[in-house]
Amino acid sequence: MNIANIITVGRVFLLPVIIYFIYRESILFSFFAIVLFSITVLSDYVDGLVGRKRGEVTEVGSFLDPLSDKIVVIGLLLIFLVRGTFWLVPLAIFIFRDFAINGVRSMAARQDIIIAADIYGKLKTNAQFILIYALMIKDFLMYDLLQHTIWMYIVDVVIIVFTVIAVVLSLFSMANYGYQYILKRKDVKSSGKAIEKENMIVLANRRARGYHGAYRRRLLRRFARRRNARIMYLPNSKDMFAGVDTVVQKYDHIIIAGGDGSFESALNYKPFHDKSLGFFPLGAGNAFYSYFYRGKKFEYLRSRFKFKEKRLDVIEIEWEKGKQITLFAGIGIDAEVARLGKTRTQNGLYDYISASWTALWKSKADYDITFTVDGTKHVWENCAAFTFGKVPYYGYAIRSLVGPITSDDGNVYGVSVVNRHSSWLNKPLRAWCFVLISLGIVRPPLVYVKGHSFTIESDVPFPIQAGGEFVGYTQYLKVRIPRKQVVLKI
Fold this sequence. Notes:
Shape: elongated
Distance between the termini: 38 Å
Strand content: 15-25%
Number of helices: 16
CATH superfamily of the largest domain: CDP-alcohol phosphotransferase transmembrane (TM) domain
């Protein structure tokens, strides 16, 4: 945890001490309470200044800072309510405002909508700080036997005025968040081309692990029935799409019912390049489900929500043994996990965890990489892994670092794990990076990159995985975006 975040958390730890001083009900402890609250307010500005100056502004800090303000403000106002010097209605409005905005932001997050904190919220917090100062000063004046003076009258006026200001700003803030959500939701809904009439076929892979579950098969039949789509079962052969091209010629929209590997195979099948491809989750992992169906709920499969067509960049990786189209890929220890987890479709998550454990002990995780992005060369010594793509798994992890990614902007996005210290730390650091990525923190050993094309070179052969499947070892890898695929999303 960085210095700015420590200061932020420290504000919360001061709260019980302030409350203790308030309840001592003496002029001395009332003064101490005002001093400590002044330190709390000052720290609210210091942590932001320190974070910006040290380059430590993180998603965690952005979350903790307003949360600590809410805890301090609501906690102290609740104490003054219990003591009979504050009112229930404005406090209820403040609490309702926080719950309402958290609800709006939660709904927005599920739809990849980012709503930045508005100016009304910060002004409201400042008004609440002044209000709490006035309530504390009122206590101080009472203990100093000045309750019948002009000073007490002035303090009462300040309490009323800033209570009204804080309430008005709270209402404005709620209205603004709601307006921003509705506005941006319309933008999200309007993105992509709406399909007026579906002309659809479902190509189902019976070898996919999910197909062996009765519920998933029943869901597949219901999905096809609601869409008035034909289900065609793919042959149990190495070329899963053998003979399919003649059947799908008359269909515009093709749903691949299988796992992530099935959809990646469809991307590599040339007759599908001019079709609109969709996805139905039948695999063990189904990373693509979180991309194609917003919110990741099976309700999208049971009901007839409208699909929209969007253009999506597909990635081409090229090495000594050939080329392959994919949507997410990686090198290093992550690819070793894919190699060791070839049987994961038999036992699902257990096989993945088993492969990860084996890779932790037996796989190499210290590659010296020469990485060139759009003509700019970088040297990554002691690199454990590099993952890149447009959509899950890594797409959503990267999106938490850089914000929403335009599906057809021509860029490949990636995150590398580069250890600047002893190589024996590489594997534990790889596990730590999963925590950093989930929190949206960009800091060493994570290195974020994006570009139209990459080349990766190493004196030692490194493993490659594409779409979650191990594809081999190489000393040279070229990455680019050769084309765009029209996909079906909800």
